[in-house]
Amino acid sequence: MTAERRERITDPERIRALAHPVRIALLDYLSDVTEATATECAEALGESPASCSFHLRTLEKYGYIERAERRGREKPWRVRSADFDMRPDPDVAGSLHAVQAVASVGLESEFLRAMDWFSRIDRESDEWVQATTFTRSSFWATAEELAQLSRDVQDLTDRFAGRHADPSKRPEGARFSKFFAVVNPEPLGDANEERDR
């Protein structure tokens, strides 16, 4: 999905709605399975159905998910938009603090997920071990160059679009995979002052 089609979210209240680990996990799970009931979500996340129902309704209230077509008596949920842009808007009071709150929860979740993978990597075949990467880079860039890199990183997985919703698009042997990246400058202060010398 290109940056132009990403849903831009700047409303602090709507952003803060994601600052909860269960809501992030629910949104991730619904993105993975296309649709699920509160009970199915509870089983997958190890949460109670009541807790999942509450958080699903909150996600619906803020426009992240919606009701899918009923399956008999079951009322499944689905993601409205799986691709959105939550960069703070300087013209929207509170959006920066809301993004900070969501980023904190999201970073912790991704850190724990990645740590879980690396703790179990010895159980994987060499093919999947070699396909995994953990990479870090340091470089000098302008704000404009860093913004372009951020957009490039966001677009890296576009080639896999549609595989969640349409299993026929998944090549044989494909496994559900995760990509996590952070592009940021070093904070201003002593560290950068030392590097400038």
TrEMBL record:
Positions of the HTH arsR-type domain: 13-101
InterPro entries membership: ArsR-like_HTH, HTH_ArsR_DNA-bd_dom, HTH_MetalResp_TranReg, WH-like_DNA-bd_sf, WH_DNA-bd_sf
Alphabetically ordered keywords of this record: DNA-binding, Transcription, Transcription regulation
Keyword GTP-binding on entry: no
PANTHER family referenced in this protein's UniProt entry, alphabetically: TRANSCRIPTIONAL REGULATOR, ARSR FAMILY (PTHR33154), TRANSCRIPTIONAL REPRESSOR SDPR (PTHR33154:SF33)
Protein name (record): Winged helix-turn-helix transcriptional regulator
Organism of this sequence: Microbacterium helvum
